[in-house]
Amino acid sequence: MSKILIVEDSAINRQILKKMLDQEYDIIEAVNGQEALDILKDEWFNLDLILLDIMMPVMDGYTFLSVIKDYPDYMTVPIIVTTSNDSEKDEIQALARGATDYIRKPYHWQIVKHRINNIISLRQTAAIFNLIKYDQLTGLYSKEYFYKMAAEEMETHPENTYDIICCDIENFSLVNDAYGYDTGNEILKCTASAVNSFLKDNILCTRLNSDIFVALLPHKELYDELFFTDLTNHINSCLTHCNIVLDYGIYQNSSSETSIYTACNRAMSVIEKVKGNFTKNYAFYDESFRKDKLFAQNITANMERALKDKEFKVYYQPKVDLKTGQMIGAEALVRWVSPIDGFMPPGQFIPLFEKNGFISELDCFVWEETCRFMRECHDQGLPKLPISVNVSRTDLYNLDVPKIVCHLTNKYQLDKKYLHLEITESAYNEHPEIILKVTSVLHDLGFILELDDFGTGYSSLNLLSEMSIDILKLDMRFAQNHTTNKRQNDILSFILDLAKRMGLVVISEGVETKEQADTLRDMGCGLAQGYYYSKPITQDEYKEMLMKLKGE
Amino acid sequence: MSELLTKLTNYGADVNAALERFGGDASLFETCFYMLIEDENFANLGKYMKEKNYEEAFKCAHALKGVVGNLEITPLYQSISSLVESLRAQNYEDIDSIYHQIETDYQSLLDI
To answer: Which of A252, A356, A253, A237 lies closest to A300 in space, CA to CA?
Structure first.
């Protein structure tokens, strides 16, 4: 059944149009241009016609027509504008902006029906003639033809279910760069023919765009690894110049209920799970992936607002002298307390922020909040203890960290030695030269630098000799495993010894038990942080601890 | 014909033409008629006319015109059409008396 989108703010008019049309067509409704755009995003491929009112709140018909001009895909759907009978001006304007035709209010039901019917059937006939059937380079079906035929296949066999397999050549742009476009094209042709012939029972195959191929197959419950490695090997056996790696995304059990467009997108999106992974080259689109995606989407959509609405809170986790048990400072940690989702563990959002760059904005917020808080404590005559803040590796590339932290210590009139900066060890692995430069500037300015997560990455002893750091922060694994693991124990001793020789202070993270604290102290570790002493606490609680310290 | 439809016919509405548009579905037509009666555009139109905010008044009148026309409520359709025309032409001379006519026609509908 052809599908019509009715865009009209008046419920009565929508009712009338629906009554006229819903026996012959599938009807979807939108009450303004914006809603219609949202629907088009997922549905444009399924739509045969749009009936568009001109005067509507939020987004009127004219705006809608101008906006969709930028979307060639959307422009393939014919639009009939509904105008009132007294305004030729509206009709001319709508036609000039790309509307296919118009109908007038009050609706004449025969005119409405015929006009819609004629336009839809004209488009369908023309579409068959106009659709470029084949991809010129590979000879596979073109994307548009694939979409159309796949949708038809699924619609005519609603009893069947299908799988969509999407393959993507890893680093194809590099192949083009290294070997030139001719070789690149050879590889694409080779891949196309292999995909087409190797996936024997494929119903349809296409090249979706540059180096992404998609096949529609009858549903199969199990795919073993061999299936995919064989296909990749087969392609490589045809290539003389180079070897390629293919990543596969599979969307299973697709039916006519999910549009082919969405199904292909899902198969394509799940590839990101295995991109760059050398041990596994295929992934299935499943519920957990969908949930992760939605979760990430939700976080990305809300992060800026959350920062504005003060949903991010800074907590402070005390650091303690292992010998005396006395608090000597704290680490500032960010928490997200959302009124809807409640308390969100940092592990859930920090990695995402590191990926999308928002971490820098959040870090700046934490730095400022920490400085403001220290000023407040100093003003109230509380003991002056340093607080460390995290500097993400992206900050070091994206921000002028020395300028920002200097500005903050000036603004809040703090001695620089009170603001400790924690830089994670792994930052050094990627761009050592940048890290060395920035840390040396910060150190010369008088900031105390802590090397965070020491011992987690590919620690290099070089790093210790090259980088201007003051404090070594041992990853929590050292505190938690050393009693059970003899070798780790030896490494810990060695690190503590080395630190002592180099005049570095060592702080151990993740101390959870008295036994751990005792052993660390006996081994010569000076400072500790962890739940055994205190969890991260609010600023008021931290102030209370400072007050207690003052009393002592 | 139901009581409402008879009354509407007496009022001057072209019920037969409207029913044709509704594919003969009298009860859907009646539902839509009651939706029209409660259409907030009437109240908004009154408000904007009073404030002489003719731009907004035009939007309300224009929206009403489309719906009233589709329901073939001829007398109200005529008065609203002439208001839409005047507002479009920015001819505000007789505008209050035209609006008054709409109020009268709308009131008669409410009385039904």
So the answer is: A356
